[in-house]
From TrEMBL:
Name of protein: DUF4440 domain-containing protein
Signal sequence range: 1-21
Domain (DUF4440) ranges: 31-138
Naturally occurring in which organism (per UniProt): Dokdonella koreensis DS-123
One family name in Pfam for this protein: DUF4440
InterPro entries associated with the record: DUF4440 (IPR027843), NTF2-like_dom_sf (IPR032710)
UniProt keyword list: Signal
Entry superkingdom: Bacteria
Length: 147
């Protein structure tokens, strides 16, 4: 169960990094807006709003996590951590037609909201996105702890 919680935090970081890396117009701006909304949703403890940006056919953690499991994982993180902090490194975004790939390094920390976090780790995250009309949806994500 701890591994699943960690995986959910990693996915969140990867998505947030993608938002900060989008600097070109059009599709990248739509990706940025979606990821900013996801970031706001987690900060405001609304995992249901976050999951709205995740595709129905989402798979993560090498196929062991579907959309419903990710939603449950995020709800668990919100309940477990009064505060979740995310620090993102530079992101690499590649858009190819109706698909996008985002690679990023993210540092996640959580805890009761005190001055020092109680838990934290650094992850390398790669997420895949699909354009659905004018919106982007995350369809897959893989992550590995790097520190």
């Amino acid at each position: 169960m701890t591994r699943l919680r960690t995986l959910g935090r990693l996915l969140l970081l990867g998505l947030l990094v993608a938002v900060s890396a989008c600097t070109r117009g059009g599709d990248e701006q739509r990706l940025r807006a979606a990821l900013e909304d996801m970031h706001t949703a987690i900060e405001q403890r609304r995992p249901g709003d976050f999951i709205d940006f995740v595709a129905e056919d989402f798979t993560g953690a090498e196929g062991t996590l579907d959309r419903a499991a990710l939603h449950n994982l995020l709800r668990g993180q919100v309940l477990r951590n009064e505060r979740i902090d995310v620090v993102l490194g530079p992101a690499d975004i590649q858009i190819q037609g109706d698909r996008a790939t985002v690679s990023v390094t993210a540092t996640l920390a959580g805890g009761s909201g005190g001055w020092l976090p109680e838990r934290g780790a650094v992850y390398a995250i790669t997420s895949g996105w699909r354009r659905d009309g004018g919106d982007w949806r995350c369809v897959n994500a893989q992550w590995r702890q790097s520190l």
